[in-house]
Amino acid sequence: MSAVAAGPTEAQWAAAVAAVRDLPPDARVLMICHVNPDGDALGSMLGFGLGLRRLGVRRLQATFPGPPVVPEPLAWLPGMDLLVPPDDAYPDPELVICFDAASASRLGELADRLDRAGRSLMLDHHASNVGFADVNLVDPHAAATSVVALRLLDRLGVPLDASIAAGLYVALTTDTGSFRFEATTPAVHETAARLLATGLRPGDISRRVFDTRPFGAVRLFGEVLGRATLEPAAAAGNGLVWTYATWADLARHDQPAYVLEALIDSVRCTAEADVSCVVKQAGEAEWAVSLRSKGAVDVSRVAVALGGGGHRFAAGFTGRGAIDEVVGQIRAELATVAAPV
């Protein structure tokens, strides 16, 4: 069993604690999460950052590659004052901490900080993680990166408060699909109870994160779902359902790109398909691809083969070319990795 498959060793935990504890008082610490951050990436980073602030880390920044736009459902998270645009991020910090990124490519233009930092630390839960930092805390058995972040905060002796817990709870709920996905174990509920015990209101958080979107986004979803395609024979008979959204779709409904992140949840409920896919335009002939599985197919193997990463039930990659070409690549990889029904 590989070190990643087994989770962090005691030596790795100790090295991570030392990387934080041994920082000089004026050290610059830069936290980076992946491009187009979701609830786990942003929530884990900001929650952990607030924990570092409680430890007395003063020169602390958080950032992510690409346009510095936070999705509206996450814009209320405590710790937003830590965020800076990538152009303003420390160029050579003493410590860089990466969150929820299975490979350095997911850090975009900020990946160079790994080589320019005095030391690098990475927190993640994707089994496809290649271990690109000096110290890698990767636990593929964790339901979210926030679980790894919370364990490290515990080892650092940081007491939980509602501000720290808010980001970690949002991360946990988003990556477990509001505790509906297969990764939801008794331990996940125990972690959620511990976070809620700080005074969080789960109903308010769920409404903000999952149950509120502009009417324009509702109309956009209707149009994009209307062009969904079901391929029952794909993925060795396990079934594939997919759809796509373009910049023109967003412009027609006057919506920002982040609203499409929730679209995969509407697609994945299709009864006749184990695998669901949403292809979202990210550039000229460039597409951000989200893959989900109900369990029969390991979509991380598809994503890794196509240059991305993730875990068995959720993964993604950047596709290039025409939509039909990108979907054709997915279809071909599914035929290779999927087990017969």
Descriptive key words:
341 residues; alpha/beta; inorganic pyrophosphatase (n-terminal core); Diaminopimelate Epimerase, Chain A, domain 1; 6-stranded mixed β-sheet; 5-stranded parallel β-sheet; 13 helices
Polypeptide structure, described:
With 341 residues, the chain is an alpha/beta fold. The chain folds into two domains: 3-209, Alpha-Beta Complex (inorganic pyrophosphatase (n-terminal core)), CATH 3.90.1640; 215-337, Diaminopimelate Epimerase, Chain A, domain 1 (Roll), CATH 3.10.310.30. The chain has helices spanning 3-6, 10-21, 39-55, 113-116, 145-155, 162-175, 186-196, 202-209, 215-226, 247-252, 263-267, 299-305, 323-337; strands spanning 28-33, 59-63, 95-99, 119-124, 135-138, 229-231, 240-245, 275-283, 286-293, 309-310, 314-320. It starts with a helix and ends with a helix.
